[in-house]
Amino acid sequence: MPDIRSPIPFSLCAMWRLASMRVAMLAFVVASGLAAPASATPDTYTFDKDHTEIRFSWDHLGLSRQSGRFEAVSGEVVFDPEKPEASRIDVRIPLKSLSTGVTALDDALLKTPDYLNVSKHPEITFKSSEVIMTTARTANVSGELTFNGVTRPVMLSVVWNFSGEHPLSKINPTYAGVYASGFSARTQILRSEFGITRSIPLVSDEIRISIETELHRR
User: Fold this and answer.
1) How far from the centroid of its chain's Cα atoms is residue 171's Cα?
2) What is the pLDDT of residue 42?
3) d(CA 103, CA 123)
4) At 51, is the secondary structure helix, strand, or coil?
5) Which ranges in the chain belong to alpha helices (H)?
6) Residues 6 or more apart in contact with residue 156 via CB below 8 angstroms
């Protein structure tokens, strides 16, 4: 007897199987995307003010290098140990915190309009613009330094000293659960480029700046 069955049921069945396979594949792709871990975000650090020091030095009459420091600093550092080149730095330094250890030099000279003009420009700021790793633990950090009403580009040579659980966490409860990072940095500027020219060349135009800082993750 001739086969009088229509080929339509077979075609519908094949189409159903194909559609089912596509739905299953789509579900797998969506599920895989949902299961994938979110990309890590950089951590934000604040300065440990008891262990952060910004010093500056100058040549005095060719006799010696004298120095001073800033006793206060604020701001934050965004840092990812897995991708340090994505770091960002935003630092603010109140000029009233400047100290050379010689009160007459600080108040009667350096903080006056002849030098830093603290009353008109009370703050120094630095904001990074680029981080270029030079080795696994060193980098050149470019950014804009603003003080005395002038903004100019500078570059810091930075050494990444440490990141991890604070080394004192196991012996001092104060540091329990504290994640810390530490850095050293150096740069050099010409004060004349920031409008400070008094006493040059008896007191050097070139100013060396050194930074030692410990930071705590928020």
Assistant:
1) 29
2) 87
3) 19
4) helix
5) 8-35, 103-105
6) 140, 141, 142, 143, 185, 186, 187, 211
Q: What is the number of residues in the chain?
A: 218
Entry pTM: 0.79
- 214: its two tokens: 């410990």
Judge whether 119 and 131 are in contact, CB under 8 Å. Answer: no
Q: Does the bond joining 201 to the residue before it have cis omega, within 30 degrees of 0?
A: yes
Per-residue pLDDT band at 23 (split at 50, 70, 90): very low
Q: Answer whether 96's CB lies under 8 Å from 122's CB.
A: yes
| Residue 217 DSSP SS3 | strand
Q: Which helix (H) or strand (E) holds 109?
A: none
Closest CA to 97 of 89, 107, 88: 107
Q: Which domains does the chain have, with CATH numbers?
A: 43-217 (2.40.128.110)
At residue 37, does pLDDT exceed 50? no
What is the model's pLDDT at position 41?
74
Residues linked to residue 186 through DSSP beta bridges, in sequence order:
157, 210
What is the spatial distance between Cα 4 and Cα 45, in angstroms, rounded to a whole number? 79
